[in-house]
Amino acid sequence: MTHLTLLELNPRTRACRRDISDPQAMHRTIMGLFPGTDDPSPRRHWAVLWRVEPADTPTLLIQSAIAPDLHALTADYGSARTKPIDGHLDRLMSGMLVSYRAVVNPVRTTRRTHHPDASPGQAVIPAGERAAWWQRRALGAGLGLTDPATITGRPDQRVRRGERRLPLYTARIDGTAIIEDPHLLREAITCGIGRAKAWGCGLLTVSPIT
Which helix (H) or strand (E) holds 195? Predict the structure, then answer.
C-alpha cells in the first residue's frame, strides 16, 4: 500500500525552520516517523519520498509504503493528514491527460567531472539542456509531454558527503502529459525519479485533467 501524507508546517517553530533550510535535517526528522529496520537503506525499505511545497504556509509531502507515526513530531510542528493513494494509482490509464509536478536532481552520470563541487561520477545538466533531459526522463516514466515543461531552478543547498559539503542542485518541474505507459508511471511514482531522494528529490505527483 502507498500512503501520502500532507503536513502543513509551522515555520514559527525552530525545528521547522531548521528542517526547511537543511535537507539532511528534514531527512532525519522524516525517517524518525518510521520503524527501525535491518535494511541498510531504511528510506528505500519504506519507499519514503518527500518534498516541500513552498508557500506562506509550506507543506511537506511524504509518500511511503506505510503510514508514518506522526505522534513522533512535536504538537507545534504542523498539522497533518495521511491517506492511501492506491486507488488513485490504479485509475491512471493509458491515454489519460494529467498534470504533474516533480522536484529533481538534474545531474547525469559521467566518467569525469569538471565541476570542483560535483560528486564523483556526476555532472550537472546545464539549464539550456534540462528541457530535453526532462523529456527523456518523463518518457521513461511513462509520460508523453503535451507541452514544454516549466522548469524552475531552486536555490542550491549543501549536503554532507563524508568530510565534504557538496551542493545539492534541484529543479521543480511542472507540466501536462499524456499517460503512455501506466505501469512505468506507477513505478516512477512509487520508486521516485533520479537521484538525491533522501534529500527531497524524486517525488512525482500527477493529477488527472478532466
Answer: none
Give, for 89, the enclosing helix (H) or strand (E): helix 86-90
CA distance 173 to 168: 16
All cell numbers assigned to 96:
489519460
Q: b/e for 111-130, b at 16 or more Cβ within 10 A?
A: eeeeeeebbeebbbbeeeeb
Prediction pTM value: 0.91
Contact 107, 169 (CB under 8 A): yes
- Output 184-188 pairs: Cβ under 8 A, ≥24 positions apart: 184/140, 184/141, 184/142, 185/92, 185/141, 185/142, 185/143, 186/89, 186/92, 186/142, 187/141, 187/142, 188/140, 188/141, 188/142
- pLDDT tens for 113-160 read 555 445 556 788 998 999 999 999 999 999 999 999 999 987 667 776
Neighbour-count burial of 136, counting CB atoms closer than 10 A to its CB (0-12 exposed, 13-18 middle, 19+ buried)? exposed
E strands present in the chain: 3-9, 49-53, 59-64, 78-84, 97-104, 107-109, 122-124, 143-145, 150-153, 157-161, 164-168, 171-179, 204-208
Burial grade of 51 (CB within 10 A; 0-12, 13-18, 19 or more) = buried
User: Amino acid identity, residue 174?
Assistant: D
